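REQUEST ID: PR-0412
SUBMITTED BY: lab tech R.K.
PRIORITY: routine
TASK: structure prediction, single protein chain
INPUT:
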Amino acid sequence: MENKMFVGAEEMAEDLGVSRSKAYVIIKKLNAELEDKGYMTLSGRVSRKYYIERLYGYDEYLGK
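STATUS: complete
OUTPUT:
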């Protein structure tokens, strides 16, 4: 995995063990949360940092 800023549906589906269509639903929900906070989003992709933070807890993911 490269250090990319965004996670797409393909990678998310593989990470979570869900279908690609379910990954798109999750991306849409996460992007809606970001838009509510005033952030710009890209359709079909979500910020990698926000994805990790919401699904795993960022500090826990980093082992802090």
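NOTES: The chain has a mean pLDDT of 90.
REVIEWED BY: pending
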